[in-house]
Amino acid sequence: MFKKLFITTLFGLSAFSAQADNLSSLTAQANNGDMLAMAKLAKAYSNQKNYAEEAKWLTRLAEKDSSAGQLNLALMYINGRGVKQDYKQAVYWLQKAADKGYAPAQHNLAVAYDEGHGVKQDYQKAAYWYQQSAKQGFAEAEFNLGVSYDKGQGLKQDYKQAVYWYQKAAKQGYAKAQLNLALMYADGLGVPKDEKQAVSWYQKAAEQGSVQAQYNLAVMYVQGQGVKQNYQQAAYWNQKAAEQGFAQAQFNLALMYDYGEGVKQDKHLAKDWFGKACKNGAQKGCEKYRALNEQGY
User: Fold this and answer.
1) The dihedral sign for the CA sequence 187, 191, 193, 195
2) Is pTM beyond 0.85 here?
3) pLDDT tens for residues 39-85?
4) Is the separation of the CB atoms in 56 and 63 below 8 Å?
5) Cβ count near 20 (within 10 Å)
6) What are phi and psi of 30, to 5 degrees?
């Protein structure tokens, strides 16, 4: 179970664009107080990777009380892009936008309190701002509010509420929530234990590239939990996770090649995957690698 850090995409500015040949025209408009021109300039300079100019126009936009401008300026301070990294300044602008009900800013302000960036760590304030953002359907906040209930951070531990908010975010396609929801079904926390539901949500998260979900789904196929036992599917998902560097999946995939389960037996590939698992910290992989090496593979 885990939380997401600050969002780093440009919110509210993605639709704006500007050609290089009309930057001077936009600059003139922006200098006359045109907020749309300021937003277009910020986006144009972002695309050009001229972050100092991007920060300049986001500052102008934020000072005009634009919520999107305030959030994006905060992200510049968080990432130290175009400005010196300054979490306190980030929190200042996040608070401005959050107080006006801007859901992405509310979420990032919650993360600041959660992690103690720019403010004293305060789980109760984090939970409050996650709630404000989640009520507006912001998926990341729904997920993190679920984690807060799951862990009992800033709120009384409540697995049913955790499941409720994971479900909200999962239905929006948020992979981390889909994984956590699957774990809740697998363990019977906040919901009756249901391995079929666990498999269903692991599948959704795995298809989006969640390495933990890919590995867990492979285990479900090997053990025939919530799904008909299928070594070929297990090998497929172990391969997906292994290719992302997940040591236990690399080890399990190596075993499948070693014994010819779900894949054609191939001792050389088994050795390769045992070696990769070993390099990623799986001690048993080191032992298996040495054994196959001694056998001449």
Assistant:
1) negative
2) yes
3) 999 999 998 999 999 999 999 999 999 999 999 999 999 999 999 99
4) no
5) 9
6) -65, -40
